[in-house]
Amino acid sequence: LRSFEQSLHETVQEGLILLSRKKVQEVSEYLTEVEVDGRTVAQASDTSAVLAQRADLGATLVPSASRSFFDRVDDSGKYLSLMLVQRDGRISHASRSAPGAAAGTARLEDGVWAGTGLMAAHRRAVGELDAQLVEVPPRAGERRATMFLVHPVVASDQVLGSVVLQLDVERLLRVATER
Q1: Half-sphere exposure of 148 toward its Cβ, with a 13 Å CA cutoff?
Q2: Mean pLDDT of the chain, nearest integer
Q3: pLDDT at 165 over 80
Q4: How high is the pLDDT of residue 158?
Q5: How far apart are CA 115 and CA 121, in angstroms?
Q6: Cβ(154)–Cβ(129) below 8 Å
Q7: Is the pLDDT of residue 130 over 80?
Q8: Residues in a beta bridge with 152
Q9: Region 66-73: what's the mean pLDDT?
Q10: What DSSP line would sit under the chain, residue for residue?
Q11: What are phi and psi of 70, to 5 degrees?
């Protein structure tokens, strides 16, 4: 009986180890896709053209071809929002307004994003020229924290700002928990 229990325990433990490794690999693949998407958007001429205007959210002109490009990324289902942010933190383009955001919120350090660490991640991304993954605590009325990928945008050796992708945490959790 003891031998059977030991064998059963080892079999269950091996199965759990295999399942854990599979889940880690799936989450890693998902986050790699997110980083590739961030880099693709950051390197797109549409992105640099919008950020080169150095305009605020309401004043930025987004050509229809560029809007289509951003909409395709937004419609992929991986992201809750896509923002193009000037080097100083002004938002030049947002695919969606944040829940609870004031109509005039146009900076990462103001409104719903104030005190969340998103501006600090943006500063690190543009200062170190390295993508940043940041968790933002739940805002008032929300159940879960959210995550953002902040990727620097560089064109002609000039840092223009960043691409900010808000990850769909529900989707990430499904990847991590589904069999």
Answers
A1: 26
A2: 84
A3: yes
A4: 94
A5: 12
A6: yes
A7: yes
A8: 162
A9: 85
A10: -HHHHHHHHHHHHHHHHHHHHHHHHHHHHHHHHHHHHHHHHHH-HHHHHHHHT---TTT----HHHHHHHHHHHTTSSEEEEEEEETTSBEEEESSPPTT--TT--BTTSGGGTTSSHHHHHHHHHHHT--EEEEEPPPTT-SS-EEEEEEEEEETTEEEEEEEEEE-HHHHHHHHH--
A11: -65, -35
Q: How many CB atoms lie within 10 A of CB 114?
A: 12
pTM of the model: 0.82
In angstroms, the CA 80 to CA 74 distance is 7
CB 116 within 8 A of CB 124: no
What are 25's strand-pairing partners? none
pLDDT of residue 128: 96
* Structure tokens, 55: 């305009």
Query: Six-digit token pair at 110?
Result: 């103001």
Contact 62, 70 (CB under 8 A): yes
Q: What is the pLDDT of residues 97-124, one digit of tens each?
A: 655 455 555 788 887 788 888 999 999 9
d(CA 77, CA 175): 13
Sign of the Cα pseudo-torsion (91, 96, 100, 103, in order)? positive
User: What would the two tokens of residue 146 be?
Assistant: 């959210």
